[in-house]
Design brief:
It comes from Deinococcus aerolatus. This is Y-family DNA polymerase. There is one protein chain. By secondary structure, the chain is an alpha+beta fold. The chain folds into three domains: 170 residues, Reverse transcriptase/Diguanylate cyclase domain (Alpha-Beta Plaits, 2-Layer Sandwich); 92 residues, 2-Layer Sandwich (Dna Ligase, domain 1), CATH 3.30.1490; 73 residues, no CATH class. The protein contains 16 helices and 14 strands. The strands form four sheets. A five-stranded mixed sheet has the order 5-6-1-7-8. Helix 10 runs antiparallel to helix 11.
Length: 413
């Protein structure tokens, strides 16, 4: 069965185009500058890098929006789950915007029509991706093996050489030399390619031209999204009422996680005008109170409460097993590392003794002591006193008298 590549890059622009079809759209950066724009927006005069105000002045019907990274990743994971459920168990999408599948040619044509995206079909992932870059939206470009594949690759333009490892700098340097594509690069020797492109990139290109390519797609691991949904009898308008619903849904999440950690929390609110969603990134492993607060903030980001929420859906994505380091050595009694170190270097180890963790002065907070004797060890890590002890009243008076006497002794009569 051949391998297919679906080209949906740039993914933020594709996501906006699917949400707002048949109108000019542009994806903005955090500084409100145009990162990507579709063909309708570019024909209206929208250029990459301009401010959103300037873009709207040239194209008043433009829809410009900032697509945050959590929102884009959550939508990408949802797409991978859909492809796994409907088309194939071999799905791989490490980079948002490019997904590889193991499907038949009829299924590839159906997928291209459903997503209205270019699809490449070949026996290797690299050739399939090049074919997808040269296909039209909704079209499948199939590349046969043998002489047909060699003729197809010889027509690869320089802009598509990033698939085999070249960087934009390499492509610019090749264009300066007059290289018109992969056909001209094939005429070079292996040593010339390594000398010009670098050893790593050159070897990768040489292996590709020799036929050493990736011919398998990794098996997709499902269950990366945990979802809980609750429908409402009457529309919801108050945040306090939403907190009650979240309090009932979150225990289901915690039971389903089973000690794992999630990267993103998505809230979907169904209203009369449609579904609104927002995604928040989770830092660490927040507890029930933290998840409740983040869910409330995400619901506020959707702006669905004034419209009336008829159903709420919570999703956790980016499920993974957290890694924790419990100690420097797994079993101190068995390894006896500390004893061996102290036998060879008696003064090598020190340990901290806490005096007052909440003290303002560093030397009053902790001190380093010897591992064996427990005596204070004056090392470079030992806190130094940065202040002088205050004088008593008698000492201060005596210092003032001495300064006054020294002044009069120096004044001539």
């Amino acid at each position: 069965m051949p391998l297919a590549c679906v080209n949906l890059s740039p993914w933020p622009l594709t996501l906006l185009s699917r949400q707002r079809p048949s109108i000019p759209v542009a994806a903005l950066s955090e500084s409100r500058r145009v990162l990507y724009a579709n063909s309708d927006a570019q024909e209206a005069g929208v250029q990459l890098g301009m401010r959103d105000i300037a873009a709207l002045s040239r194209c008043p019907e433009l829809h410009a929006e900032v697509i945050s990274a959590p929102t884009a990743i959550a939508a990408w994971v949802e797409l991978l789950e859909t492809l796994y459920a409907r088309y194939s168990d071999r799905v791989e999408g490490r980079v948002p915007g490019t997904v590889f599948l193991k499907i038949s040619a009829p299924a590839a044509r159906e997928l291209a029509a459903a997503l209205h995206a270019p699809v490449g079909l070949a026996e290797s992932l690299e050739v399939a991706q090049i074919a997808a870059l040269r296909a039209k939206p909704g079209e499948v470009r199939e590349v046969a093996t043998g002489a047909a594949e060699k003729a197809f690759l010889s027509l690869t333009p320089p802009a598509h050489l990033e698939v085999i490892g070249l960087t934009p700098v390499h492509i610019e340097r090749l264009a300066f030399l007059g290289v018109r594509g992969l056909a001209d690069l094939m005429k070079w020797s292996a040593a010339q390619r390594e000398a010009f492109l670098g050893v790593d990139v050159g070897k990768r290109v040489n292996r590709f031209l020799k036929g050493e390519r990736t011919g398998a797609v990794q098996r997709y691991v499902p269950g990366r999204v945990i979802e809980a949904r609750m429908g409402l009898d009457s529309p919801l308008y108050e945040p306090s009422e939403a907190d009650v619903i979240f309090s009932e849904l979150l225990p289901l999440f915690l039971a389903e996680l089973r000690g794992r950690a999630a990267a993103y929390l998505t809230v979907q609110a169904d209203t009369l005008g449609g579904r609104l969603s927002a995604t928040r990134k989770l830092k660490g492993s927040p507890g029930p109170a933290g998840l409740l607060r983040i869910a409330g903030l995400a619901l506020t980001d959707t702006g669905a409460l004034p419209l009336g929420v008829e159903a709420l859906t919570l999703q956790l994505s980016g499920i993974q097993q957290p890694g924790r380091m419990v100690g420097l050595w797994a079993s101190l009694a068995e390894l006896e590392v500390t004893k061996d170190v102290l036998d060879r270097f008696p003064e090598a180890l020190v340990k901290v003794e806490w005096l007052d963790p909440y003290a303002y002065a560093t030397d009053a907070r902790y001190q380093w002591v010897d591992w064996l004797t427990g005596m204070v060890r004056p090392t470079s890590m030992t806190p130094r006193q940065s202040w002088k002890p205050a004088l008593t009243r008698i000492q201060a008076h005596q210092k003032a008298v001495e300064r006054m006497a020294a002044f009069f002794e120096e004044v001539p009569l």
